[in-house]
Amino acid sequence: MASVKEELESLKEQIRHHNYQYHVLDDPEIPDAEYDRLMRRLQAIEREHPDLITDDSPTQRVGDAPIAAFGTVQHQVPMLSLDNAFAEEELREFHRRVTDRLELEADAGTLEYAAEPKLDGAAVSLLYEEGRLVRAATRGDGTTGEDITHNVRTIDAVPLKLIGSGYPPSLEVRGEVFMPKAGFEAYNEQARAKGEKTFVNPRNAAAGSLRQLDPRLTAERPLDMYAYSVGKIDGGDLPATHSEVLDRLQSWGLKVCPERGVVAGVEGCLAFYKEMGAKRDSLPYEIDGVVYKVNDLVQQRELGFVSRAPRWAIAHKFPAQEELTTVEGVEFQVGRTGAVTPVARLKPVFVGGVTVSNATLHNIDELHRKDVRVGDTVTIRRAGDVIPEVVGVIASRRPKGTKPVQLPKRCPVCGSTVAREGDEAVARCTGGLYCAAQRAESLKHFVSRKAMDIEGLGSKLIEQLVTIDRIKTPADIFRLEKEELAALERMGDKSAENLITAIDASRSTTLERFLYALGIREVGEATAAALATHFGKLDAVMSAAESELVDVPDVGPIVASRIRSFFGEEHNREVIQALRDLGVHWEESEPQQSPADGPLAGKTFVLTGTLPNMTRDEAKKKIQALGGKVTGSVSKNTTYVVFGEKAGSKLTKAQQLGVETIDEAGLNSLLKSS
Ligand code: IVH
């Protein structure tokens, strides 16, 4: 028993150390796989000895049952707010007030300020007793907050137990919980695709996530935290300046913002403001200004407070990222993949540092959920280099007689049908190759290596040829002549000749490559190959009914309907005919059932990473030859994940789902024994 306890403690210590390296220092020492092994070992021991599980074990973050209601927490030291400065002059006034009270020379430029970003999230108070997190609370009204311990425990950046030594026996840490930009965007994108409600901005996302009764919901949100001060402490002592206090918090395992600094006088503050303003867009989290705090804690005490804000600190705000304006029209744009996106035309408004006159409404569901109408007053948000978006309508300001906006039936660019597949939120133009908006992307796919494989016809050249309207459909590629190519920018006689030779060579292809090249949605290489084998002839694929298509391995009802609607468009059939007339050909064969009966039949493989001795394509051919299926994504239906070097998320997912993973040697012995 003694040795089990020892191992348990050692594992907890190691995991805490690696959490610190990873989350606080952003400098992991060991690969994720090794970390996972430590964690799994700890879980296994705890499963066997449930009596040894403690609240501060790294395994105890998630999984608590929902609570019935939030308890309240009295803040023994009030959680204050900050005064704001918007203009430089307001900051100079603040500095004069501070130096006057401290009886210092305002212009001496010697008073030290700790300068830090003003994080745009939700304030929290964390109480550590003997180094253990015992309570977490919201700011509330500054005096009374809500107990959100169950939720805060799920945030990886918050240590459940402090590391190192010398922390006060009772230590209240304060900081900001926030949702990093990438997590916020990804969360909203998913919500939009599922037709669910999105978050208005990262601050609401953080605050909303902390106010969940069910901690399992909070655990799914990508939250992070930076500590920015201490509240009540009992026993122990802290350094004499704010910046050193933060250093100390960091050494105990708390995460602090890496962008902080110590500056001298008001000029130092202004330089910091400028620097952060320039960095703002590229920071991984949202900030709405910077905060300056008199660095010396004795001076802070001397300055004291007025009502709800300290005299020793001020927030210097950046220009607003949200403003009001009115909608002058709603138009629909067609993207490179055919997605039809509603866009609001706005009365120009200055927001996030630029004048904005268009804002995205993302998709038709989102448009209807927000019910944005022409004439409405709306909130516009422009955060950094993210496309400006309509956050919502001010309902009370809606004029009389407005009407809901409808999705157009036809593509505004090419006139093809606009369709929505199943419950997808995105509406798409079905014009494909025919639609000018989608042309360049479809053509790049058409000439790519696994499709028609036309060497020398790169993205830049395609874009050039599409722009001057020389190529409208793939058929036009086979109408190009050497002289006109040689006359193009950055093209010589020799490269023009090489390109013509490559185009000529590509005329002789295979049915599977040709089908793949057409760029039918959901028809990847594997499906194209299965179609070619099953039907043998293009005409048979083109005229196949959905009921015949679903007989092909790999083709389900959705893919079948995509294939049908592609060949149902007359202009797609015309392009195919033109290609054949221009000499694109392949060997047709008799219809053939795919090898559904090989020794690997019924087994599904996913390949990931670089294998040492064969390409993934080679591995795939070998598996398929024995009747196995190779797909692109890991699910619980996957039989094996074959991994090589630099394998990424697919391998992780396999491990999470408990799918068997094998390396190249494992695959070889499987192939041999089959
Ligand atoms: S110090 C007495 N530092 O801004 C000082 N606050 O308006 C109180 N905030 O509720 C806070 N970043 O949630 C401080 N680096 C930072 C901050 C910060 C964001 C928030 C905090 C507070 C609000 C004050």
Account of the 3D structure:
There is one protein chain. This protein is α+β, with helices and mostly antiparallel strands and 674 residues long. It contains 25 helices and 26 strands. Strands 14, 15, 16, 17, 18, 19 and 20 form a seven-stranded antiparallel sheet that branches. The chain has a five-stranded mixed sheet with strand order 2-13-10-3-9. Helix 17 crosses helix 18. The longest helix has 23 residues, at 2-24. It is globular. The protein starts with a helix and ends with a helix. The structure holds 2-(butylsulfanyl)adenosine.
Percentage of residues in strands: 15-25%
Low-confidence stretches: none
Number of helices: 25
Secondary structure: helix percent: 25-40%
Could you give the distance between the termini? 47 Å
The count of strands amounts to 26
Ions and ligands: 2-(butylsulfanyl)adenosine
Categorize the overall geometry: globular
| Mean pLDDT figure | 91
Instruction: Sketch the major β-sheet.
Output: 7 strands, antiparallel
Structural class: alpha+beta
Q: Radius of gyration over alpha carbons?
A: 31 Å
Layout of secondary structure:
Blueprint: H1 2-24, H2 32-48, E1 72-74, E2 84-85, H3 88-101, E3 112-119, E4 122-129, E5 132-138, E6 144-146, H4 149-152, E7 170-178, H5 181-193, H6 202-210, H7 215-220, E8 224-234, H8 242-251, E9 261-264, H9 265-279, E10 287-294, H10 297-303, E11 305-306, E12 309-310, E13 313-317, E14 322-334, E15 339-351, E16 354-360, H11 364-370, E17 377-381, E18 389-393, E19 418-420, E20 427-429, H12 439-447, H13 459-467, H14 474-477, H15 482-486, H16 493-506, E21 508-509, H17 511-517, H18 525-535, H19 538-543, H20 546-549, H21 557-568, H22 570-581, E22 585-586, E23 604-608, H23 616-625, E24 629-631, E25 640-643, H24 649-657, E26 660-662, H25 664-673
Parallel strand pairs: 2-13, 21-22, 23-24, 23-25, 25-26
Antiparallel strand pairs: 1-6, 3-9, 3-10, 4-5, 4-7, 7-8, 10-13, 11-12, 14-15, 14-17, 15-16, 15-20, 17-18, 19-20
Bound molecules: 2-(butylsulfanyl)adenosine.
